[in-house]
Amino acid sequence: MSTSDCLFCKIVSGEVPAQIVRESERVVAFRDINPQAPTHVLVIPREHHVNVAALAGADAALLGEVLAEAHRVAVDEGVADSGYRVVFNTGPGAGQTVFHVHAHVLGGRGLNWPPG
């Protein structure tokens, strides 16, 4: 998939609308269109990387920024103290459907273990 075909690259460029909740120079966070919890925000790098493994191999500092922004989302959403989950689905077998790395920040309800 080229970046011109990537839904999340189109959100980053403003071509596709999204409900942005936070953004920085290198990271964007927006509400999931199919929320699985009262708080369900996706945190993505502006730069295209297919999945978290690719991002970790290419730019560990950017991966750190994505995770730091995920925590800021949890604070802003009021779920940092009660608990939240950060999930990266990597590959189709794990449920990844958009092949631009994204962290799901989930909170606001009990999150059972194991997930799934």
The total of beta strands comes to 5
Q: Could you report the average pLDDT, rounded to the nearest whole number?
A: 96
Largest sheet: 5 strands, antiparallel
Please tell me what the overall shape is: globular
Instruction: Report the CATH architecture.
Output: 2-Layer Sandwich
Number of domains: 1
State the end-to-end distance: 27 Å
Strand content: 15-25%
Assembly type: single chain
Q: Decide which structural class fits the backbone.
A: alpha+beta
CATH third-tier fold name: HIT family, subunit A
Helix content percent band: 25-40%
CATH superfamily: HIT-like
Under CATH at level 1, the class stands as: Alpha Beta
CA-atom Rg in angstroms = 13 Å
Q: Count helical runs.
A: 3
> Which residues sit in consecutive blocks of at least 5 with pLDDT less than 50?
none
Major beta sheet, strand line-up:
1-2-3-5-4
| Helix and strand sequence | HEEEHHEE
